[in-house]
Protein: Large ribosomal subunit protein bL9
Amino acid sequence: MLIILKENITTLGKLGEVVKVKPGYARNFLFPQKKAMKATKENLIKLEEQRLLLEEENTKKLNAAKVLASSLHDKFIILIKQASEDGKIFGSVTTREIAKTLLQEGYDISHHSLSLGGISIKNLGEYQVNIELHSKVIVPITIYVVRSEKDAHELRQAKLQNQKSEQQEAEQDASKEAADADDS
Structure:
């Protein structure tokens, strides 16, 4: 099926391009998400008329994604899962579960935007997850899968302590640089 892209999609192409995709992908994902439309003569003419508007809308989405990306910088999520003695969790962690946790923390991100990088999270530990906020904005976040609330609390405290010490080091470095600049 030939479609016209209404926004940049990393795996398909850029805004306004006519691409061929499987009908189910278009019908079940691209059309409902308003990321594409059927490639007809009428739609091609309509697209040319609306190209500036769509590009402006895409720029707004990009800017919003950059703002959200800055708030997600150095973000980590702690998930508590039941696990066996050797660290294998019962079930697995899914993108839906991660999206639900992000929503609870105030970030409305679709599970379609999350990428586990081809791995399945079936053990306790630390994992890197990428969030595609826009085709040009991909933000990595860290997921920690722990066994208990106590482990989660200890991990949270350790992360906060690390962030405080890094911030203090950065402030000290900045003050040293300022002092060195004053001496020059």
In short: The longest helix spans residues 149-183.
